[in-house]
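Much of what follows relies on a compact textual record of a protein's fold. Here is one such record, which you should read through line by line:
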Amino acid sequence: MQPHIAFLTPMAAPTLEVIHRLKPEGFTIAFAKTNEQSEHLEMVRHADVLMAAGTFITAEMIAQAPRLKLIQKWGIGVDKIDLEAAKGAGVTVAITAGATSIPVSEHTLMLILATSRRLPLAHRSLQEGKWIASELRTVCAKLDGKTVGLFGFGNIARFVAKRLGGFDVNIIYHSRTRLDPAIEKQLNVQYVDFDTLLSQSDILSLHAPLTEHTKHLFNAQTFGKMKRGAMLINTARGELIDETALVDALRSGQLSSAGLDTFEGEPPRADHPLLHMDQVVATPHSAGGVYDNVPHIVGHMYRNIELYFNKQALDASDLIVAPPR
């Protein structure tokens, strides 16, 4: 019997075409049409492999997938996968380490610049027949000379630092593990403790995974330690931020602005306050979503699947739950 892949995350037709076209020989694949759990539960019953982007893969789904051997994640975040259930069932979990680092880092820089210059407000005002150049001058800021803080320093943050090298900025970072001094020198970054990161950053960009320790780490207390008028950027996970506290910090002026690609609940409701504030630039968790990167990431996923079924080792950076021995 050919191994069967269930792709659980609905995608636009051009993306599905690439996924189907690059499928290795010897595998079959089915695509979810909705995000409904009932459809997913039916699909997983016949699956040897689950592929997913932002879809939840629950313990119930894993329990109802008797043939399941591998969960292959599109991207790097595994907070929506029940890893304990996968481990208990002997199911391998793999990511595509580094596959979206470049587009997410570019999106991060875009959010920094668009938020600094109030790009949506400027565009919308012209659509409404207004000319607010004078008003924009009072709320916009340059990037030159600013201190940019990076919370977390994995692949994406490294690419952000590299791209910021073209601007005259001071880059500081905080992460669980400090870089080798030679890499710090190469990237022109300085390690600081968490409180210093908060107090010195004019722009703070989040690049950490969601864990029990990072959930709502950025809250009223944290914002109170930040430089008044600082900007917050998030292309990581929405749950890193207490959104109620963020709204309050923006309204009070403790934070000047925010650029957000991720939210606590996705999609956020249409009346969410953060979507109706002139000092916020928001995008729909699309930082890694560029079409010319699709073949690269899909190829990465299929390579892992082929390695697994050929009983070859996956790259250690891709393995979240290792195959059972």
About this structure: DSSP finds 13 helices and 13 strands in the chain. The chain has a mean pLDDT of 96. Residues 101-282 form a domain with the Rossmann fold fold (CATH 3.40.50.720).
